[in-house]
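Hi support team,

I'm opening this ticket because the web form for multi-chain structure prediction keeps timing out on my end. I have pasted the exact lines I submitted so you can reproduce it. The total is 326 residues across two entries, so I didn't expect it to be a heavy job. Is there a limit I'm missing, or should I split the entries? Thanks in advance, R.K.
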Amino acid sequence: MRIYDETFTSRLMLGTARYPSPQILKDAIVASGAEIVTVSLRREAAGERAGQRFWDLIRDTGVKVLPNTAGCHSVREAVTTAEMAREVFGTRWIKLEVIGDADTLQPDLFGLVEATRILSNDGFQVLAYTTEDLVAADRLVEAGCRVLMPWGSPIGSARGLNNVYGLRAMRARFPELTLIVDAGMGVPSHASTAMELGYDGVLLSSAVALAGDPVRMARAFRLSVEAGRLGFTADPLQPRDFAEPSTPVLGQALLGDTVFA
Amino acid sequence: MKIILNGEPAEVASSTLAAALVELGYGEGPFATALNHDFVPAPERCETPLSEGDAIEVIAPMQGG
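Hello R.K., no limit was hit. The queue was backed up. Here is the completed structure from your submission:
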């Protein structure tokens, strides 16, 4: 999987929030095989040191971090958060979220394009959390974005892929671009389906963190992403309307009265 | 001087952002700062003057999705 000028073996990116404990988070990262995890920034009181502890834990795992602008509802907020993330995490990557609707957490595509242009011009490598809207996708690419991350369904909804047709169309429109389904995964088959559509990767968080056994679920998603990718690259059989015998009929003995033409 | 730190009222004697952070108890840890909604890079904190009513944001790494 290619993210700007770097290549990764794993096609699964994992969120780090809402795990039962730091140790379970660490174990889940290992079990998932993820080489990239998402992180965020929040206010810290003097002397609290929670940020330092979390940062130490993530650095211990040896994975790369992808900071997000989660919770930002305006271009200004998102741009300022990205600037702060670049300094704290020492990366040009930013998972750019500009949220437009409080209930669905749907991205504000107008603000997203504007923020992408500002950040790309400032040297950021933007991974845009978007929808499957092709017009917005065109504008994001024009603005400098090289990794599009359409939602599968609303963040944390566990509904899987709401619009397979739209995701397939986006893959067809941008055959060379890195496309990652981000958000809405619930069970491993959702990730497999995304990979079978030819997506380069999957980003998920709550599906693992909030599972009864996050470490086990992390491994399940690892396998499902690998299976989906293998299936996509193996030139799958296309669906048809009628049956086709899988057992050869040539040489079958005539033992009854019925003969199908 | 009265300021707003992470949305809460606070009082500092320092006249620069860098000095105020030390006065407020922020150490060397990984954090970034904004003053009145604008990002202030770490190297510029010591040259960034504070005024009455300024709003300082100090943010640090945390878990994200």
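A quick check on our side: Chain B has a mean pLDDT of 95. Let us know if the file doesn't open in your viewer.
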